[in-house]
TrEMBL record:
GO-annotated cellular components: cell envelope Sec protein transport complex; cytosol; plasma membrane; thylakoid
Gene name per UniProt: secA
Keywords, in A-Z order: ATP-binding, Cell inner membrane, Cell membrane, Cytoplasm, Membrane, Metal-binding, Nucleotide-binding, Protein transport, Translocase, Translocation, Transport, Zinc
Provenance organism: Thermodesulfobacterium geofontis (strain OPF15)
Cofactor or coenzyme needed: Zn(2+)
Oligomer and partners: Monomer and homodimer. Part of the essential Sec protein translocation apparatus which comprises SecA, SecYEG and auxiliary proteins SecDF. Other proteins may also be involved.
Boundaries of every SecA family profile domain copy: 3-634
Keyword hit for Chaperone: no
Domain Helicase ATP-binding stretches: 89-247
Protein name according to UniProt: Protein translocase subunit SecA
Family affiliation: Belongs to the SecA family.
PROSITE patterns: HELICASE_ATP_BIND_1, SECA, SECA_MOTOR_DEAD
Keyword field contains Membrane: yes
Top-rank lineage group of the source organism: Bacteria
UniProt-listed GO biological process terms: intracellular protein transmembrane transport; protein import; protein targeting; protein transport by the Sec complex
Length: 923
């Protein structure tokens, strides 16, 4: 009550905002006469003048009034369209980084030209985001003449474009495209191995058309680039067979404490013999070393029924702390696949996530973000909380006279649809155009069948966006037209009463074989402008196309008068959507620019929303009223109650999106770190300093680990430390000094490693090694980042269940994700150094580019990699995951490993508390 009184005295926040904008609009209007006096060349030169003023220290706000006045005049001359005052207001709101809510038909596409031009003057590039490829192309071509007239470049993105075409589009001052194209280009850029291959040039300013659709509806699904696992699954089986032939302590050694296994000199020679290659540590075979190491770990460090169990043909990890099974979790880095090969199971083919980002986090990268839509106010709280965007409702150019009738509710869907069809038939016979909104394609088809029975011509559209749909929606305002569409169909396209003369004229000219590319765009727009002013353009333009365009304009105007007399476009909603925005979007198709129109929703107690809302009470109420079949219940209170139900559902979905975003924020910080490091590596001519730093850090880590484990460091521990050093640096340093301090040991290890690296540089060549350093570091980052994304996915699944243990899943996820990331950074350094210290290149004449090209192209003979699975499957059986029967194992039962010993004295000897046995007894 107090809020209402205050609002009447001081005005609402929105009213105060509009009041602030009015003086700026008046200043822009005062410049109009001055701009009209300028010649085309003088008006175009204003762009150069504005850029010079910005270089001299002026701000965009300083030049805003004049810049907006220039764009308005350019639009009037080039397109025959002049920005209204409310459109100028919308442009100011967008420039300030806010959301402008403007009703359908208010010319949002034209509004965007104002802030786009102003911000493009900085030279940093402006992105205008649309909901589909067709609108991106249409808007760029439609508004392009304004930008080009003023000396700016404009481009647009399409799905099938090549990288060179994309780079050209991004190099333009203003770029149109869909949210997915912008997002995927960002992800692809961060997978490139050269700065020259990147297409984007930064994220300065974005204007999002239909901002609610993109930032809220589509934000539920992240953008993911995925692909099949790079390695053939056959390679796991092939390596597994080789590892089975290696002998422990002869060909490899095992460190059970650190769960590591590594080949001896004899083992390397044996692997080379079995693989049929000369040098296992040649850079082209680095992937093989990784597979061999993981297979050795799988066979000798991970035990069945201890570290994992096999159930239904799948390897399920056993939690080492609780002994409980963790279905859905997978070991990373190819270890899980190696264990599947060891157990002779089908290796699960899974799409590997290569890169991922949510819509929310992509658009939050922009320095300045703005948006426009016809329906944003209902989601104002979410826009503010997630994106820090304020919503400003811009008044309409002409008063809204659309009639929104109260909802009518029927008992069954059958009754509802019968009434809808009757309503459509009545309007069709009158000649009044009808647009019917449904929530699914199934309902589209049901209505279509019912209309066909009554022989009512109609168009059926679903939510797939393409040019044909836009054309049909644009003509949905013609008399005797019935269009059935999903509630979202036709976003961004105006329904003009009487039809769209441009579309009709182009269709006729194309049908007659006329080449539309020969028509001058500016002349076409001038014909339309003259027609709107009541002038006959054919007195100036004698071309046939001008005659057709003018005739179609007059035809549409005549039809529009007829439709207006019938009450304008009639919107019928067949079901309430969970979100009020979608309903408002459907209603907004009618009543554009002060046109008459009407809308009504026909509902039933069987609709999803009403079932959730509590239809039993309504059903009982309707039965008590004694309403006969087919008689609806209609009351404004009912509409209000339904709206309250929608608000609850909206709040629920908001909480879900917010919760998911909190999870993604964890990954986002890690993504930013990895991508910024990648970019730094690509920008650097040499990363030798990075490598030296990594060597020094790794030496410190090795010594630190040894001293943490053994507070009183003895000489006996030196052997373990040196073995760890050898795993990474591929040699054992000669240490013969009695170390009393760990600092001395660190220094000695650093000197040994750096000395060996300098020797390697002399052998390989400085230039070649610099190229290989970059290649190995980038490859390692990309490979381990992919695995890390997979680990985070599994981590999210597992931490979600910890709520049952009175723990906050999000906090658990943040904590464990941090540890995983720390481990990732360590592994990147370790694996990169391991590769660099092991490379052996006999042909020193080869450049790093030639070697890298070989690495990428050359693979082991594919015939050798084909592993015939003879053992796992019986003859004639299909090679598929076979269920494994898991039986309860008693302490005195024979051990399943086949040793002949009792289980308690064999594999079961490590099970002190019997947790795994307990878990297995449940199976």
């Amino acid at each position: 009550m107090i809020a209402r009184v205050l609002a009447k005295i001081v005005g609402t926040k929105n009213e105060r905002e509009l009041k602030r904008l009015k003086p700026i609009v008046e200043k822009i209007n005062s410049l109009e006469p001055e701009m009209q006096k300028l010649s085309d060349a003088e008006l175009s030169r204003k762009t150069v003048e504005f850029k010079e003023r910005l270089e001299r220290g002026a701000t965009l706000d300083d030049i805003l009034p004049e810049a907006f006045a220039v764009v308005r005049e350019a639009a009037r001359r080039v397109l025959g369209m002049r920005h209204f005052d409310v459109q100028i207001m919308g442009g100011i709101v967008l420039h300030e980084g806010k959301i402008a809510e403007m009703k359908t038909g208010e010319g949002k596409t034209l509004v965007a030209t104002l802030p786009a031009y102003l911000n493009a003057l900085t030279g940093k590039g402006v992105h205008i985001v649309t909901v589909n490829d067709y609108l991106a192309k249409r808007d760029a071509e439609w508004m392009g003449p304004i930008y080009r007239f003023l000396g700016l470049t404009v481009g647009y993105l399409q799905n099938q474009m090549s990288d060179s075409e994309r780079k050209k589009a991004y190099a333009c001052d203003i770029t149109y495209g869909t949210n997915s194209e912008f997002g995927f280009d960002y992800l692809r850029d961060n997978m490139k191995y050269s700065l020259e291959d990147m297409v984007q040039r930064g994220h300065y300013y974005a204007i999002i058309d239909e901002v609610d659709s993109i930032l809220i509806d589509e934000a539920r699904t992240p953008l993911i680039i995925s692909g099949p696992s790079e390695e053939s699954t056959d390679l796991y089986y092939y390596i597994d067979e080789i590892v089975r032939k290696l002998k422990k302590d002869i060909h490899f050694t095992v460190d059970e404490k650190t769960k590591n296994a590594f080949l001896t000199e004899e083992g390397i020679a044996e692997c080379e013999r079995l693989l049929g290659i000369k040098n296992l540590y040649n850079p082209r075979y680095v992937r093989l070393i990784h597979h061999i190491n993981q297979a050795l770990r799988a066979h000798h460090l991970f035990k069945r029924d201890v570290d994992y169990v096999v159930k239904d043909g799948k390897v399920i990890i056993v939690d080492e702390f609780t002994g409980r099974l963790m279905p859905g979790r997978r070991w990373s880095d190819g270890l899980h696949q190696a264990i599947e090969a060891k157990e002779r199971l089908r290796i699960e083919a899974e799409n590997q996530t290569l890169a991922m980002i949510t819509i929310q986090n992509y658009f939050r990268m922009y320095e300045k973000l703005a948006g426009m839509t016809g329906t944003a106010e209902t989601e104002a709280a979410e826009f503010k909380e997630i994106y820090n965007l304020d919503v400003v409702v811009i008044p309409t150019h002409k008063p809204m006279i659309r009639i929104d009738y109260p909802d009518v509710v029927f008992r069954t869907q059958k009754e509802k649809f019968e009434k809808v069809v009757e309503e459509i038939e009545k309007c069709y016979k009158e000649g009044r155009p009808v647009l019917v909104g449904t929530t699914s394609i199934e309902k589209n088809e049901l209505l279509s069948k019912m209309l066909k029975k009554r022989k009512i011509p109609h168009q059926v559209l679903n939510a797939k966006h393409h040019e044909k749909e836009a054309q049909i929606i644009a003509q949905a305002g013609r008399s005797h037209t019935v269009t059935i569409a999903t509630n979202m169909a036709g976003r961004g396209v105006d329904i003009i009463l009487g039809g769209n003369p441009e579309g009709l004229a182009k269709a006729q000219l194309e049908a007659e074989g006329y080449d539309l590319s020969e028509i001058d765009e500016r002349a076409w727009n001038e014909v339309l402008a003259m027609a709107r002013q009541g002038l006959d353009p054919t007195t100036k333009y004698k071309d046939y196309w001008a005659k057709v365009l003018y005739e179609k304009y007059l035809e549409c105007q005549k039809d529009a008068e007829k439709v207006k007399a019938l009450g304008g476009l009639y919107i019928i909603g067949t079901e309430r959507h969970e979100s009020r925005r979608i309903d408002n979007q459907l209603r907004g198709r009618a009543g554009r620019q002060g046109d008459p129109g009407a809308s009504r929703f026909f509902l039933s107690l069987e609709d999803d929303l009403l079932r959730l809302f509590g239809s039993e009470k309504l059903k009982t109420f309707m039965e008590k009223l004694g309403l006969p079949e087919g008689e609806p219940l209609e009351h404004p209170w009912l509409s209000k109650a339904i709206e309250q139900a929608q608000k609850k559902v909206e709040a629920y979905h908001f909480e879900i999106r917010k919760y998911l975003l909190e999870y993604d924020d964890v990954m986002n910080k890690q993504r930013e770190t990895i991508y910024s490091q990648r970019k730094e590596i690509l920008k650097s001519d040499s990363i030798k300093d990075w490598i030296i730093s990594m060597i020094e850090e790794k030496c410190e880590e090795i010594v630190e680990e040894a001293f943490i484990e053994n507070k009183h460091f003895e000489k006996e521990n030196l052997e373990t430390l040196l073995q760890r050093f050898k795993e990474i640096f591929a040699f054992s340093p000669e240490i013969d000094v009695n170390f009393s301090k760990k600092e001395d040991l660190v220094k000695e290890l650093k000197n040994s490693a750096l000395k060996r690296y300098e020797e390697k540089e002399k052998i390989i060549g400085s230039e070649t090694l610099r190229g290989l350093e970059k290649y190995f570091l980038l490859t390692t980052i990309d490979t381990l980042w992919k695995e890390h994304l997979l680990m985070l996915d599994h981590l999210k699944e597992s931490t979600g269940l910890r709520g049952y243990g009175q723990k906050n899943p999000l906090q658990e996820y943040k904590k464990e994700a941090f540890y995983l990331f720390v481990d990732l950074m360590k592994r990147i350094k370790e694996i990169t150094l391991s590769y660099l210290f092991r490379i052996e290149i006999k042909e020193t004449r080869e450049s790093s580019e030639e070697i890298i090209e070989e690495l990428e192209k050359e693979e082991i003979d594919s015939k050798k990699l084909q592993y015939k699975r003879e053992d796992p499957f019986k003859e004639g059986e299909e090679a598929a995951s076979q269920p494994i029967r898991v039986q309860k194992i008693g302490r005195n039962d024979p051990c399943p490993c086949g040793s002949g010993k009792k289980y308690k004295k064999c594999c079961g000897k490590n099970l002190e508390q019997g947790e795994i046995r307990d878990e297995m007894s449940k199976m």
